[in-house]
Amino acid sequence: MSKRIFITGTGIVSSIGNNEKEVLESLRYGRSGIGISKTLQSVYRDEIPVGEVSLSNNELSELAGITNKISNSRTALLGIIAAKEAVTNARITNINEFKTGLISSTSVGGMDRSEIFYKDFSKNKLKGRLRNIATHDCGESTQNIANKLNLNGFYTTISTACSSAANAIMLGARLIRNGYADRIIAGGSDALSLFTINGFNSLMILDRNFCRPFDETRSGLNIGEGAGYVVLESEECLNKTGKIALAELTGYGNACDAFHQTASSPEGYGAYLAISKAFKSGNITPEMIGYINVHGTGTPNNDLSEGMALQKVFDGKVPYFSSTKSATGHTLGASGGIEAVLSILAIRNKMVLPSLNFMEQMKELTICPVKQKIDNVEINHVLSNSFGFGGNNTSLIFSKV
Amino acid sequence: MELYIKGINSISPVGSFDNIDNLPEVKLTDEGLKYYSCIEPAVYKEIINPVLIRRMSRAMKIGIASALFCLKDAKLEMPDSIITGTGLGCVEDSDKFLVSLIENEEKMLNPTPFIQSTHNTISSQIALMLKCHGYNSTYAGRGACFETAMLDALMLISDNEASNVLVGAYDELIQNQIKILYRLGQFRNYKKLNNISGNLPGEGAAFFVLSDKQSETDYAKLVGMEIISSDNYLSENISEFLNKYSIESKNINSVLLGVENTNLENSNYSDVINLFPFSNLLWFKRLCGEYMTDSAFALWLATNILKSQKIPENIIIRKNNTNALDNILIVNKISGNQTALFLLKK
């Protein structure tokens, strides 16, 4: 029997709220955070809607309790806020009391600042403020968050595109099970950037309207930004502190679709493998799952592939499922962390979260997402899917304690 | 748990281990900034499908070729898992996409550099070529990225999730990055060509096949590894690490250090060095330069030394013993104030 992994704290910042309380409120009322950007200045501003966190970098710095406002990337700021909230919620006062580590993930790191640097640098190699390029690598935000948490222990950064944060949580659990840590803060952060907006736009997978996951008329995703972190603790750690866990991480599975660099296999083989592995690792059977927080980006390819995998895994009896990306936008490297927090909120509030903008049943599938929230549902186990470019697929299972 | 290194490969500024006695050439940018660059394989198409090579960046070529050569070396067709570490990922593609979105004011952009800029490009491309559906992950950025990839592999094997893991690291160096690194003061451009400096930007790829099964053809045994996340008490931490593996510091045959040059007194490794008065002191940065995943090059070098039972003259700082060459300790301070330790045995 493997060691049990408990979740004692959660923290989140996203376009539907700057903390867990605000996010829960938005979920309850079916609010969407998708709209015209205020901070990101893209030429597509009026054309391509995004899920932007409502605060400016200055406001985020204040919320993060940072006095030196000039040297942090937006990814780091979002990460600091959510990670601090997770640590506070876990009622951790001395972060170095137990062997504690940080596993953070991001896909673009400090790209928002690299873009500012490159505007000058691309014209003249002697120009561009160096402080704007010093945050370029993916590890900078992780180190920055670790410093702001006063963490002396291990930290590392995962970057597997859109499954990054789910892999961070999985690694955290494995480090605890193997005795390398007692406690791990795991999750991810990604800020909006011209790089990603233009990248996904050049791939022609951005919807010009609100994204419609699992809808017959879906035509792409809305990019979002934000951060989500959970605090994972070993059972011994929990016993020593006498804390009550919020949830348990019971299963995880990572597999590679190995089909195409950006597209998922039509039958969703990688997704099927990741979900099956998660079930096996937690000794959980499909009928035990009460709700699935799907990857559900809203692209024609993902939703078909994921839908096929779900129908196969659940043998036609697919439980309630929804894509919260319809509210938050697709937060890329942060999505697995944000959706872990949302999955745990669903369990604790006995609430199946809604998939916004769904209207028309997909022809290829027999299943459809939950349109409106459903209250008073005893959810014992939630499956959370995160699938990325390169076929990097990871599924997590969160359970009621 | 002990792991056996079954196959290795590296594409680096020094080339193959047979070439190790020839120091790599110091290259110069147009502005006269010094750096090291990889000696690339003469023909990639022997190892990578020629149709795919055309669109690949240099990072992809060196990373993927090194991984495939490594599998060949281990005589392994299909690993159970693939794990990579990279400091800046496919930085040429990131740079290209960034410049083009600025120059073209976000219009009419070619998506290829964007697709290839994601840090997991190489681990997933290898999986795609092999049709490997197993566990696949990538660690990135400053701090312990290659080291975490190794730790991840170790856990997969000890949890019986995998038996053969392909793990490696890659970092390419591009012209814009060299300019930025010098401007950031991470490297200083001395006018005189200093022949023994390792403090130059470098690059490379190195891959390993790790397994729990011992065999005659193994390169070496990885006895233990650790990532220390604080500069304080480094020598105490190293002593503790050695205790854990029941070996005394006086019995460490050779220590391979991440020092920038042979002037040990002025290095930030002086505390570490005092721990090992009887060990040979070696260094590796003169052969590969400095980059975020240079630990992978050090591991490749140490593995080769143990297998060949030969320490190349040009990496010796201090020869303190002529005992049987049966173990090597790697101590490398990595970016982000962490220190990596690897203990290898014959």
Tell me the domain tally of chain B: 2
The oligomeric status of these chains comes to heterodimer
Largest sheet of chain A: 10 strands, mixed
Q: How much strand content do the residues of chain B show? A: 15-25%
Q: Largest beta sheet of chain B: what is the strand line-up?
A: 5-4-6-7-1-8-13-12-9-10-11
Q: CATH homologous superfamily of the largest domain in chain A, by name?
A: Thiolase/Chalcone synthase
The number of E-state strands of chain B comes to 13
Portion in helices of chain A: 25-40%
What would the CATH topology of the largest domain in chain B be? Peroxisomal Thiolase, Chain A, domain 1
Poorly predicted parts of chain B: none
Q: Which architecture of the largest domain in chain B does the CATH hierarchy give at level 2?
A: 3-Layer(aba) Sandwich
Structural class of chain A: alpha/beta
Which CATH class of the largest domain in chain B?
Alpha Beta
Q: Number of helix segments of chain B? A: 11
Q: Helicity of chain B, in percent?
A: 25-40%
SS strand fraction of chain A: 15-25%
Query: How would you state the average pLDDT of chain B, rounded?
Result: 94
Largest interface: A-B, 64 and 64 residues
Alpha-carbon distance between the termini of chain B?
16 Å
Instruction: Let me know the number of strands of chain A.
Output: 12
Can you offer a commentary on this structure?
The complex is a heterodimer of chains A (401) and B (346). Chain A is α/β, with parallel strands linked by helices and 401 residues long. Chain A folds into 2 domains: 5-241, 3-Layer(aba) Sandwich (Peroxisomal Thiolase, Chain A, domain 1), CATH 3.40.47.10; 250-399, Peroxisomal Thiolase, Chain A, domain 1, CATH 3.40.47.10. Chain A has helices spanning 20-28, 57-63, 74-89, 111-121, 138-148, 164-177, 194-202, 235-241, 269-281, 300-313, 325-328, 335-348; strands at residues 5-14, 34-35, 50-51, 100-105, 155-158, 183-190, 226-234, 247-256, 291-293, 320-322, 381-387, 392-399. Chain A has a 10-stranded mixed beta sheet with strand order 5-4-6-7-1-8-12-11-9-10, with helices on both faces. In chain A, strands 2-3 form a two-stranded antiparallel sheet. In chain A, strand 9, helix 10 (300-313) and strand 10 (320-322) form a beta-alpha-beta unit. In chain A, helix 2 (57-63) packs parallel to helix 3 (74-89). Chain A is globular. The relative contact order of chain A is 0.18. Chain B has 346 residues and is α/β, with parallel strands linked by helices. Chain B has 2 domains: 3-211, 3-Layer(aba) Sandwich (Peroxisomal Thiolase, Chain A, domain 1); 220-345, 3-Layer(aba) Sandwich (Peroxisomal Thiolase, Chain A, domain 1). Chain B contains 11 helices and 13 strands. Chain B has helices spanning 50-53, 58-73, 91-103, 111-117, 121-130, 145-158, 175-183, 234-244, 270-274, 285-288, 294-308, and strands at 3-11, 27-28, 34-35, 81-86, 136-140, 164-171, 204-211, 220-228, 254-257, 280-283, 316-318, 327-334, 338-345. In chain B, the strands form 2 sheets. In chain B, strands 5-4-6-7-1-8-13-12-9-10-11 form an 11-stranded mixed beta sheet, sandwiched between helices. In chain B, strands 2-3 form a two-stranded antiparallel ribbon. In chain B, strand 9, helix 9 and strand 10 form a beta-alpha-beta unit. In chain B, helix 3 (91-103) runs antiparallel to helix 4. Chain B is globular and about 65 Å long. The two termini of chain B are 16 Å apart. In chain B, 55% of the residues are buried. The chains are: A alpha/beta (401), B alpha/beta (346). Chains A and B meet through helix 4, helix 5, strand 5, helix 6 and helix 7 of A and helix 3, helix 4, helix 5, strand 5 and helix 6 of B.
